[in-house]
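Notes, p. 3: input format for complexes.
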Amino acid sequence: MPEQRKIIAVVGATGAQGSGLVRAILADPKGGFKVRALTRNPESDKGKELKAMGAEVVAADLDDQKSLERAFAGAYGAFCLTNYWEHFSPEKELAQAANLAEAAKAAGVKHLIWSTLEDTRRWVPLEDTRMPTLRGTCKVPHFDAKGEADDVFRRSGVPTTPLLTAFYWDNFIHFGAGPQRGADGKLALVFPLDDKKLPAIAAEDIGKAALAIFKRGREFIGRTVGIAGGHETGAELAAGLTRALGQEVVYTNVSPEVYRGFGFPGADDLGNMFQFKRDFNDYYCGARDLAFSRSLVPDMLTYDQWLEKYKDQIPIPVPA
Ligand SMILES: NC(=O)c1ccc[n+]([C@@H]2O[C@H](COP(=O)([O-])OP(=O)(O)OC[C@H]3O[C@@H](n4cnc5c(N)ncnc54)[C@H](OP(=O)(O)O)[C@@H]3O)[C@@H](O)[C@H]2O)c1
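Output follows (320 residues plus NAP):
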């Protein structure tokens, strides 16, 4: 029988979001899609692993529009992201998004999912002094260019679903956002959230949600979709860690100013990000509705389920 399955090209296939989509497509061979994984280096260990799992793996670079065009050729769908943390440049992120949009247009992609976040300048204009302007042009640099790029995709005419993602609980493992040991020796989660809720998700579920969106055909084209697996306060996140790790983890609230001053790369950006989530919490949570998210992915992990699955991977700083 001739192959009927449509190709989904996955940018960032070796990373947290994209690998979840690759796995979701491979786990659903009767779902109507097959997967083409994009990476700069198909011969890397991760590239080879994707191939061994059954994905087509092709070379493409976000900085090279022609390489994206070749990688999108013949694809029905494309899952697109940029990785701000690789270069810390909103300008580069915007240029990479433009390359994605142009390449998808040239290749005739029928449905593109753009992994995005808010352009926070719509809520906090640059002249607003509640938080500092960073890099000269942004309030939350790793958000703003993504949100600005929503328009780049819209203007390109490529049928697009902007997908508002959320904080990964996996940041407790990979991003240095897990429990820290305070001067008093206690384990603490340190965020500037006050008593507000943090919409968050298991990174792997972003890919599952993307597959669900592709499967719903035209329903979400031109509509922004937001997802989260849970809305927990800092205190609830710490209480979950306490239960899962069997050691007390407290929530320590700090001001955004203090957080911005922590000095690690991106601390100012993340301080502004938490302030945005705190100060516009009703909007931010509402844009990532839990019932809607679960309607896309019925088995989306809750925070407790994520903890149960991954608690052994969370690094615990040893006492001084
Ligand atoms: N951490 C969070 O809580 C969170 C939440 C929401 C959104 N985000 C956003 O997620 C984005 C990163 O996604 P992720 O976490 O899935 O990535 P990740 O796990 O850090 O991996 C980065 C991926 O991007 C690909 N990539 C980077 N530069 C590329 C280039 N020039 N050409 C082609 N591919 C390139 C890499 O592919 P190769 O190396 O194989 O080429 C890799 O697959 C960031 O922009 C971040 O702002 C993060």
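The mean pLDDT is 97.
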